[in-house]
Amino acid sequence: MSATTTTNDKPIIAQRGAGKKQYDRVLLSAIGYVFITLLAILCIIPFLMIVSSSLTEESTIVENGFQLIPAAFSLDAYELLFKYPGQILKAYGVTIAVTVIGTATGLFLTAMTSYVLARKDFKWRNSFSFFFFFTTLFSGGLVPWYLMIINYLDLKDRMLVLILPMLLNVFYIIVMKSFMSSIPEAITESAKIDGAGDFRIFMQLIIPLSKPALATIGLFIALGYWNDWYNALLFVSNENLMPLQYYLYKMLGNMDGMRRAMISSGAVVTMNIPTESLKMAMTIVATGPILLAYPFIQRYFVQGLTIGAVKG
Amino acid sequence: MNRRGFWGDVRKYRTLLLMLAPAVLFFLVFAYVPMAGIVLAFKQYNYGGGIFGSPWNGLDNFRFFFESGNAWMVTRNTALYNIAFIIVNNVLQIAAAILLFEAVGKWFRKISQTFMFLPYFISWVVVGAIAYNLFNYDVGTLNVMLTAIGLEPVDIYNTPSYWPFILVLVSAWKTLGYGSVMYLAAITGIDTEMYEAAEIDGANVFQRIFRITIPNLYPTLIILALLAIGNIFRGDFGMFYNMVGNNGLLFSATDVIDTFVFRSLTTSNEIGLSAAAGFYQSVLGFATILLANYAVRKYDKDHALF
């Protein structure tokens, strides 16, 4: 477990000499433990609710509603999901493909762009920085962007539409640029004297030196792709191209659709489908990889936030 | 050396320029060309004419947007929600960060922080599923609990007045871990000599928190808040759409500019109206962000965006 904290490991409490009246500290600790415990429980309990609901027998849900402790335990929902996984497997496939391709391409382009903007000898670095940055201040709004993608790029119902619009993000470029600016110039200078070109310097020197920033930004990009449903909502109607989150969105809002999806995946028409617990099981299946990876990747996000959060 | 002229520079920087090319192309296609598409706000869109061939209709789209009363409603909702989010989220995040730093032990801090950061990682769709689990009229957990203690069940999805509270809570819930990490980093950066001096002067922990820790967080708070105020007319589409969806009963309390623009485009297919609302939002947003940046610049030049 790599749970993270950015504080130093010696809180001030420990530094105070014993022997004085410490009522204030005891009181503060009491407030702290109660308040933080409460917040932590509030943050985690909805997930437990979903898990327990997905494990509850359907008839119990219909009769008594969702409960934190299942009154009647059942694996029906998961059994159904794993017996007829057709659509979900496809959605997983789409999400994984989009996440892998999008993250690899996006991260490479982010790094390459940031490197050029971080080069202090590049005459137009400020002009280009402003060119990128201005897009965060002003935009044409949803409609022209939407029409551009649908009519002019003709990307509707193509996998590319799930990748392209999220490929680059100005915020990530800025964070990466500020990281790369801190790499000593002497390193690239000596390579230049040895006759290395700019692109080679970037590939062979800058990328290895930027690993921490690449890991952080890469995870941010990957999380963005994994959790994306918006581009699918706008541009995808083909069921074979639905990413996981959008598939979940469709199923949550549409019990008939869920029934149809299970049937098209091979379930029998007359089958009694546990819709409520199935919705919850589907939520768990769609979030599972993130919940599993979370303890290991959390630390990189904390790093990223503290590198570039305030100085935008 | 410097007298090589523009083309000389282009040649000198050709590799760097080539390395920039993909990103430049990306922002041209996905940001700058669509900016030219704002002319649609002044046009009667038809599919044959497209963006540039459709006939002009002056300010008709704007007139319709404003006279229907929608403009005021969605602008008010967007601004009020964002103000509430800024206040509630920051207060909670600061309180959590201070207590995590000052009051609890290392192990407890790590574990609770892991829990608090979790909501940041899940998609708004999953948050929508959680809301369904809690608030569904027939099977939702909230009504299960209410009936268990003998109260009437509440019909959340048909009652607009609950939603401001729900949405503020959801926003606080999703951003707590993320924000408290940032404030924790700021607290860690406070000079410990100040604490030692306070100690010698006999300050108790509460005095120390209110006189040293909190005042030292003001710079971070003010900058984060001003930047958030700059985005006050941008609604979080993912949140509103997944919590409320196309539930028209709730729009009076939940419709923000972004959801309105989206619906006008995709549901009612009023492209001109949608473009006009989007244009209105962009201009309003641009003006506020310039103002906010001006304020940040006055306060602390180093943290200004530009």
UniProtKB/TrEMBL annotation, chain A:
PROSITE patterns: ABC_TM1 (PS50928). Keywords: Cell membrane, Membrane, Transmembrane, Transmembrane helix, Transport. InterPro entries: MetI-like, MetI-like_sf. Gene3D superfamilies: MetI-like. Residues 92-286 form the ABC transmembrane type-1 domain. The keyword Membrane applies. The chain crosses the membrane at residues 26-50, 91-118, 130-153, 159-180, 201-223. Coiled coil: none annotated. GO terms for cellular component: plasma membrane. One of its GO terms (biological process) is transmembrane transport. It is a multi-pass membrane protein. The keyword Nucleus does not apply. It is found in: Cell membrane. Its main location: membrane. Belongs to the binding-protein-dependent transport system permease family. This is Carbohydrate ABC transporter permease. It comes from Paenibacillus arenilitoris.
Automatic annotation (TrEMBL), chain B:
Residues 75-292 form the ABC transmembrane type-1 domain. It is a multi-pass membrane protein. CDD domains: TM_PBP2. InterPro entries: ABC_transporter_permease, MetI-like, MetI-like_sf. Keywords: Cell membrane, Membrane, Transmembrane, Transmembrane helix, Transport. GO terms for cellular component: plasma membrane. Pfam families: BPD_transp_1. It is found in: Cell membrane. The chain crosses the membrane at residues 16-42, 79-103, 115-135, 162-185, 216-233, 271-296. GO terms for biological process: transmembrane transport. PANTHER family: ABC TRANSPORTER PERMEASE PROTEIN, LACTOSE TRANSPORT SYSTEM PERMEASE PROTEIN LACF. Belongs to the binding-protein-dependent transport system permease family. This is Sugar ABC transporter permease. It comes from Paenibacillus arenilitoris.
